[in-house]
């Protein structure tokens, strides 16, 4: 697989409801942070704990569209994508369409996700055309 194919494969794995909770623990750098729509950060371990707490019940997740993919160097890549996510949080249903910015780093020959920032769940895909 090419580096791009490897990273895209990681994104599609992230968008698997059964794997989403543990994805970052298994595929992120030690200093990874996910910035939530509130602006508050969460670590890979914190995300895993949140997803396994029972508060979040994932029904569906999918990469709707990759808007931008760019290698910033041989060992750093940036990807902006829209993620369709249907889930409930503490019993409240959500059918979200957030845009996500992600940064990947290649460490010792292995691609890891280093940073991710998620927008609110109401992205307008027509604005990306």
Automatic annotation (TrEMBL):
Q: What is this protein called?
A: DUF4440 domain-containing protein
SUPFAM superfamilies, alphabetized: NTF2-like
Name the InterPro entries for this protein: DUF3804, NTF2-like_dom_sf
